[in-house]
# Entry
Amino acid sequence: MNRTLYGNLIFELSKKGRKGYSLPQDYDRTHTTAELPEALRRKDAARLPECDELTVVRHYTNLSHNNFGVNDGFYPLGSCTMKYNPVINEEIAAMKAFAGLHPLQPAETCQGALEVYYNLQQSLAELAGLSEFTLNPCAGAHGELTGLMVIRAYHESLTPSPSPVGEGSDGSESPLSHGRGAGGEARSKVLIPDSAHGTNPASAAVCGLEVVEVKSLPDGTVDVDHLRQLLAEIGDQVAAMMMTNPNTLGIFEPRVLEITEMVHKAGGLMYYDGANLNALLGECRPGDMGFDVMHINLHKTFSTPHGGGGPGSGPVGVRKGLEKFLPTPRVKLVAPLSSPDGDTTPMFSIDWGKEAPSGAVGGASTSVGSFFGNFGVMLKAYAYILTLGHENVKMVGPLATLNANYIKERLRDDYLLPIIGLCKHEVVFDGLVDKSTGVTTMDVAKRLLDYGYHAPTIYFPLLFHESLMIEPTENESKETIDAFIDVMHKIAAEAKSDPELVKTAPHNTPIGRVDDVLAAKQPVTTFWRTLPSSSL
Amino acid sequence: MANFESGLYYSESHEYVRVEGEFGYIGISDYAQHALGNVVYVDMPEVDDEVTAGEEFGAVESVKAASDLIAPVSGTVVEVNEALEDEPELLNKDAFANWIIKVQLSDPAELDNLMDVEAYKAHCAE
# Structure
């Protein structure tokens, strides 16, 4: 393909008057705008690109060749769970009955869609060990913000004097049994481990809460002694603690039960960042570990595509007693209706939240976005859950963990393993063992591109200088993983025999080594560039 | 390998103070600039701002990460190194020559809480 030609912007390929369509001869151009008020009508032409169909196809095909996705090859991007999105997911999401829905259509005309929404939130609640979910948040960080708003609303709903919220329906004592902090002020501090994802403190700050850092131990797990000290000092102001488990290094928090109990005793809630849920899926549940509120990234754990930054979906689940603080709209199961032949058909309604409790998320308006969020993504996640079924879903976490540990053990001769022992779904190396060649993690990552792999996550987590974070997911076959391991060994050998080759990689990609300093300091953000007319 | 300059006071978070009379020049160590990689932006306070020991007074952004700058000592900012606004990479070229802020020390006793170069070397080797 002529990348120089078809790699131009579609606007640069444009030739005035060239088109790939023709309008009916009797088409009345004034017809479509006649009903619009004069002030809203466009005065000048829209400057749309004008190309023939074949040029358009070649242009976009060329662009697609510059991309790399899970369908192209192994994509071990740590902390991102780049799972395969099965084709059936797309087929179901594209069904006209779903894709053609209007968000304001009456509930009785979209019972099937409401049933999918309801069943998916039930499935997630079961997998998470929580009571109820909202599927409305549009991504992980949006879920974090929503979850923290739920927590804030809960604390604001408490009367200034401590009073129990009640017991769980199963008779167990609810952890939610503390009142407001000293001075009658609603609690406003959020404890966040210093190894947490950057979105955690960002979400807390956006929610108007104050971040307090909890130190971590050298293996990235929470320093429980420091937590105890913090709770002794400011426990009555703590609204919540946010945690990822397994943590950012892929290590399971061995003292999680102790941690959740300590925070509950101080009157705070526990927030679970579902970013690493894939490690645990089917094995154990955040609710059973003592977490009260969590989000799930459907685009990680439940196979829906990440896309170019979206669309994602970040459902938020809560423990019993917190449901009333979830945002609206919500899908409700009304009493199943009996049909004449005796069958019962479930019937769903939409709660638009007009009568939501005053303390609920967002105050008067309890919505966190437009309508129900990214419904197409929910369809894909629901299809994925049903495809796996009750038994197979239990294999996800264990297989993801097995794959990561296999890579860890086979690469630790060439790559420095800072934390010895079992990891969960991802493994972090601290660059090459042999640092004498000057080949860095960045160089290794760039060289992987030459061999047709997406790079792992690099320079995160920040606990090590040369972090190289590999997450294989459960999807990959042993052959794929073995081939990747061979290439990683080959790169380690190249770093010794021909370090310049690695330091100047990639050599086989459409674009070579990018000057990331210049890209950060002098980013070129203009869309147009001037081309000599002869180049077209 | 990182250079270590003697005669300076170092903090655990890798800032240094060079004391000249009642003033302190605060910057990041050579070890810190190595760990950060290519620096692309330095966020600095303004003249007359107060900085407090142990608290953040700015940030350094590199291609790898953004890191808060923690004041090793308290004082009033009397000068900022404006050259870093256009050439943040000066920190990579010579972190000790290119200090970030100059402060009038409000409590010179705070210097006792900082490390000398030998203690700092040991801290980095940990």
About this structure: The interface with chain A takes residues 35, 37-38, 40-41, 61, 63-65, 88-89 of chain B (CB under 8 Å). Helices of chain B lie at 30-36, 83-86, 90-93, 117-125.
